[in-house]
Amino acid sequence: MCRFALVLAFALSLLLFPARIAAQDRSPLKDALVVQQALEATIQAAEPSIASIIVTHSDAYRKIYHEEPSADEPGRLGSFNPGPAIVSQPQSPRRFRGPQFDDRRENESQKYDLASPKYVPESYGSGVVIDGTNLLILTNYHVVRDATKIYVRLPGDKGSYADIHAADPYSDLAVLRLLKESVRPLKEIKLGDASQVHKGEFVVALANPYAAGYRDGSPSASCGIISNIRRRASLAVPNDELKSSPLPTKPVLLQTDTKISLGCSGGALINLKGEMIGLTTSLAPLTGVESPGGFALPVDASMKRIIDYLRQGAEVEYGFLGIGFAPETLGGPDGVTISSVTVGSPASRAGLNGGDRIVSINGVRVHEPEELTVAIATALAGSEVRLEIARRRQLVTVELVKNYVPGKVIASKKPPLVRGFRVDYTSVPYAKESPGPRPWGRPLVIEDGVVVREVQPGSPADMVGLRVGEVITHVNDHEVNSPAEFYRALEKILPRAPLELKLSVAEGHRARTSTTTTLTIP
């Protein structure tokens, strides 16, 4: 680090301050002071936005305190209020009389109260303020996965329990919402553009390694350079698992020589302008081992789209094209060759066939299957993408449908219930299952219509027999092939008018043939 500091000092003194320091006045000490001032200014500007996140997976909140989020709101973890539960436990009046009882209450509270300075964290990470008005903190999904309580500590003696506002296992991102209004004001981090980052660029990492800031909220800083771009955090994934493997396993990450230890997941990687260009990710929770350097999810246009969805509390709907790759497909400078096309998919409707070679997507050339799957997924469902096909020497425009994301997705803002049910893209159950007999007797194709994803017990939809997995092709004679079309069709129907749903009923697991039936919901 001493050698790095000297190089950094010399470079900054030449690039940033040539006019202020005359050549004859330069000295190693002055150069060191220049770089020190630059780093101090960068750290001081971003430090108020960095959080220490304490997480517990204890089942005691459910068993002892009867605190458990509902199935419909799994992210609503709430604050910790031990009083009534402890008092209500049967105790011997003689044993717990007077101050002894108060001592026991205090000890019991500290055992489960993440806000207590005496609490010993079992799981921890870092976070970044992305919305000071709505008290939203961005972190990694794996930091808060399966949490039963979450506490967030910020610089300035601020702290609050938090709910999971939205969580997305595919991007390994989650957004927390602080519950304590008195933590205001919060300073939002300034987002940069990781697409403009180059190897050798100086960066600063701000995070809370090993929960170092869980008492005072003060993050730790380390400096370094961008070692490489478009790296992955683990070994390559087989081609048949590309569409469902999470983003950190794909070549999208920024690599840095700054130390990213356990607890640094969810911290900020910032440039010397004070802009966050990456969300730091510790390899230890992902691979089981520490590493001398570190990685960060890049804050580029694709990642900002994902963060915007999570900021709204919405589910991120990743794009699905309906193509497959042979296990030996490696790609190359002339694009990526696809081996198969799913019947009924956007690729099929656009006329793509096995053996076609995709050269670029939205003007960006692709060289391997992973690059193509990432570009498709992060374009998001419902968007149009332009594909350059080698054999045609022309662009093909297709509208993407939705891919299935394995893992527990949390969204505090869901599409509205319609007479007690919600719908989704028919591509989701297809993408979820491996080849073989389809769920609910559906054929091995992506069908026209929308699929029923949820039916509330006792609702009008439940009372007439509508079931999860059934495919709706028409609503009151309006054809629907996406959730957006479904909700647009509803706008044309009077609020209290009956819903007449035309359902597609499959005739066999592998055939595309089906019959229709009509269901009316009052």
List descriptors.
522 residues, alpha+beta, six-stranded antiparallel β-barrel, flat
In the predicted model, the low-confidence regions spanning at least 5 consecutive residues are 9-23, 85-97, 435-443, 507-513
Could you tell me the mean pLDDT?
Answer: 83
3D shape = flat
Number of DSSP strand runs: 29
Strand content: 25-35%
Percent helix, as a range, is 10-25%
Q: How far apart, in Å, are the first and last alpha carbons?
A: 71 Å
Describe it.
With 522 residues, this protein is of the alpha+beta class. It is 21% helix and 28% strand. The strands form six sheets. A six-stranded antiparallel β-barrel has the order 1-2-3-6-5-4. A six-stranded antiparallel β-barrel has the order 8-9-10-13-12-11. Strands 24, 25, 26, 27, 28 and 29 form a six-stranded antiparallel β-sheet that branches. Helix 1 crosses helix 2 (28-46). The longest helix is centred in the first third of the chain and has 19 residues, at 28-46.
